[in-house]
Design a protein that fits this description.
Number of domains: 1
CATH superfamily: Phosphatidic acid phosphatase type 2/haloperoxidase
Shape: globular
Strand content: under 5%
Structural class: mainly alpha
Helix content: 55-70%
Number of strands: 0
CATH class: Mainly Alpha
CATH architecture: Up-down Bundle
Distance between the termini: 115 Å
Length: 250
């Protein structure tokens, strides 16, 4: 009889244990916490850079200031899908693809090796010159600060961890434009416009503010001006000028 008294309790205990196991197996698991964005602490020094942009680039608009909020409204658009597609294409680091709309389908690296060399030097000098400024101000990219902005290129941790001001991509493209306008003066206006539009693609894409691009234009102008004092650049520039003169007579 004493053993029978404990049977209901034993059965209840087993039932509760089984229920607990079932609950543990079917309970939804919490979503994993996304990894924290880890920002690099200092820019990598690129030997192509010969100017100190921190000496002449002013600060960007303050975070969430009226000016930055106005800039975000510009970044949000709306933009046509055609313009967004152009922004995706302009994400490529290729001066020949960037300017073939102005200089024609024959404007390729294979056809103009001397031009490729001078644009490579100019692109590195202009594109990396703003990096120290990025680390002074550490401005978040528009799509990081505003969830209503969707970047037109893949959103990954590396992009989120990099800084917005100034745009290196915009400086790179404008540096190319400044050099090409000098080398092909008959098409200088269209080249400069294309260089500006190339940089504006970063705004359309949601990864930069208009003030990032304005600062980039100053960075590019300073970097290319300083590059003209480099004898190696002057030799490359002369070779590219001769090469392009045969294809684009003045």
């Amino acid at each position: 009889m004493g053993g029978d008294m404990f049977k209901p309790k034993a059965i209840l205990f087993v039932a509760l244990a089984l229920a607990a196991c079932a609950t543990a197996e079917t309970a939804p698991t919490a979503a994993p916490t996304p990894p924290a964005v880890v920002h690099p602490t200092t820019p990598e020094r690129n030997p192509a850079v010969q100017v100190d942009a921190t000496a002449f680039i002013p600060p960007p608009p303050a975070p969430n200031s009226a000016l930055e909020l106005a800039e975000r409204a510009i970044v949000r658009g709306p933009w046509s899908e055609e313009r967004r597609q152009q922004a995706r294409e302009d994400n490529a680091i290729d001066p020949f693809a960037a300017f073939d709309s102005v200089l024609g389908a024959t404007f390729t690296a294979a056809n103009f090796p001397a031009t490729r060399a001078v644009l490579d030097r100019a692109g590195r000098a202009a594109g990396f010159a703003g990096d120290p400024v990025k680390f002074v101000h550490r401005r978040a990219r528009p799509f990081v600060s505003d969830s209503a902005i969707t970047p037109c290129i893949p959103d990954d941790e590396r992009l989120r961890a990099s800084y917005s001001y100034p745009t290196g991509h915009g400086a790179l493209g404008f540096g190319w434009a400044l050099v090409l306008a000098e080398l092909v003066p008959s098409r200088a206006d269209a080249i400069i416009e294309r260089g500006r539009d190339f940089g504006w693609s970063r705004i359309v894409c949601g990864v930069h503010y208009p003030s990032d691009l304005s600062a980039a234009h100053i960075v590019a102008a300073a970097a290319i001006a300083r590059l003209h004092a480099d004898p190696d650049f002057q030799r490359e520039l002369a070779a590219a000028r001769d090469e392009l003169a045969r294809a684009y007579p003045q």
